[in-house]
Amino acid sequence: MADGPSQIRMAGELPPLLLGATWDAWARYESAINHVYDDFPLWGICAYDRRVASPHVLADVARTHPRLIRPDGVRESTGVYTDPASYLAECRPTASTTW
Question: Is 0.90 surpassed by the pTM of this model?
C-alpha cells in the first residue's frame, strides 16, 4: 500500500441463486476475507436481502460479519461474530445438503 490508496471501499451482493447449494463456499469466503484483508485499509459492505435469504444464510452472515447496518442506518454488533480461524475449522455441511 506504499504510496497507494489510503482507503479501499467495496460493496458486494450475491444473486439469490448462490444462497442455495453453494452457500457454504460463500460463507467460508466471507469468513476468510476478514483475515485476508486485515492489513488493508478496507471498508466493505455486503448486501443481503432478508426477504430472500434463508434463516441459515442469515445466521452465517451474522457469524462472518462483525457488524450489521439496519435499514435505518444504525450500525450494531452481530453479537455472534466468529473469528475466521475458528469458523473455517468447523465441520460444515456439504454442497449436497438440502436446507
Answer: no
Burial class of residue 92, CB neighbours in 10 A (0-12, 13-18, 19+): middle
Rounded distance between C-alpha atoms, residue 24 and residue 91, angstroms:
11
Question: How does pLDDT run across 2-23, given as a tens digit for each residue?
Answer: 777 788 899 999 888 888 888 9
* Residue-wise pLDDT tens digits, 52-79: 899 999 999 999 999 999 889 999 999 9
Cα 97 from Cα 41, distance rounded (Å) = 37
Measuring CA to CA, how many Å separate 39 from each of 5, 6, 45? 13, 12, 17
| Residue 57, all three cell numbers | 444464510
